[in-house]
Specification:
This protein has 111 residues and is of the alpha+beta class. The chain has three helices and five strands, in the order βββββααα. Helix content is 43%, strand content 20%. It is elongated.
């Protein structure tokens, strides 16, 4: 999947073939925040994406709203206690913290 990146925000690239328009939205934000953009060309789409991100940053700053960027780097995963214990013990026996071990495993899975 191709994405746009700007100031820590990641945006999708979509196409509406019926009217030859490109559009997208900023990904990984909380459910109450929606940032969209569009353009007729990729250059226009990128420019509108950057403008939308800049407008959001200004809006948050002017209104004292916490800024939420795409994918904060923190997420919760619910797993059975037995699996949690096995992973923690494996991490410990590898000389790693649980977070470092999971980061290593997840990186290997997606790269």
């Amino acid at each position: 999947m191709e994405t746009l990146n700007y100031k820590g925000f990641i945006g999708s690239i979509e196409a509406d073939l019926s009217d030859n328009t490109l559009y997208g939205k900023v990904l990984g934000l909380d459910k109450s925040t929606l940032i969209t953009y569009e353009g007729s060309t990729l250059t226009e789409l990128q420019e509108d994406f950057r403008n939308a991100v800049d407008d959001y940053i200004i809006h948050c700053k002017e209104n004292g709203i916490p800024l939420h960027k795409s994918y904060s780097g923190s997420f919760n995963v619910r797993i059975p206690a037995e699996l949690h214990a096995k992973i923690a013990l494996t991490a410990q026996s590898s000389g790693m913290s649980l977070n470092a071990y999971i980061r290593k495993i997840l990186s290997a899975a997606v790269l």
